[in-house]
Design a protein that fits this description.
Blueprint (H helix, E strand, L loop, with lengths): L2 H31 L11 E4 H15 L5 E4 L5 E5 L1 H16 L7 E8 L2 E7 L32 H13 L3 E7 L2 E8 L3 E2 L1
Helix pairs in contact: 1-4, 2-3, 3-4
């Protein structure tokens, strides 16, 4: 094998290993929040939104240094009762879903405080999500074909886990399309602004 073929093989092995690691992290997250009856609950502690988002984005950038993530968060300090590790997992799952859009040039992560709760949106700039998938995209079934146009098969389980984690926090998660791609938004209740 040529040196370039060896490098490509090593990159492919590394990507596959990260994929398996991500799947294991997702499955461990679900078992961590479900009790013996299968009911999802989490142990919450007051956490800084800025720190949780910063940790998530730094972790994402370590794996994908060439992808631009534009972050917009409120200027004030936002404290939310949450399991920070699980919310970081949600953010990373959503960032990685956005990553697999062909010709992706940037991902936007926007946090905003609202009366109903704190919202966090992740926008990509691909083809968007097929309308017929919007109602079932968090059901965990994935798709046999790549209807989202994102080139990434099997993303359904990660989205299902995101929904489980957000619901266990008393929040909601939604998928939709904006003018130039897809957008996933989750809300968390009980936030405090300082």
């Amino acid at each position: 094998m040529s040196p370039e073929e060896k490098r490509k093989l090593v990159r492919n092995i590394e990507e596959d290993a990260h994929g398996v690691l991500n799947m294991v992290e997702n499955l461990l997250s679900v078992t961590r929040i479900q009790d013996e009856k299968g009911v999802a609950s989490v142990v919450k502690a007051d956490e800084s939104l800025e720190e949780v988002i910063s940790e998530s984005v730094q972790r994402f950038r370590k794996r994908f240094p060439d992808v631009q993530v534009r972050v917009s968060i409120p200027d004030s300090v936002i404290i939310i009762p949450m399991d920070a590790t699980l919310i970081e997992q949600v953010i990373n799952n959503l960032l990685e879903n956005a990553l697999f859009i062909p010709d992706q040039w940037a991902i936007d992560l926007v946090a905003a405080s609202e009366k109903s709760g704190l919202s966090v949106s992740i926008k990509d700039y691909g083809k968007g999500i097929a309308p017929e998938l919007l109602d079932t995209i968090f059901d965990g079934g994935g798709t046999s074909e790549n209807h989202t146009g994102d080139g990434h098969k099997g993303m359904g389980i990660g989205l299902s886990i995101c929904k489980t984690i957000i619901n266990a926090h008393g929040g909601e998660i939604h998928a939709g399309n904006h003018l130039r791609g897809a957008q996933f938004t989750f809300t968390l209740p009980d936030w405090r602004e300082y």
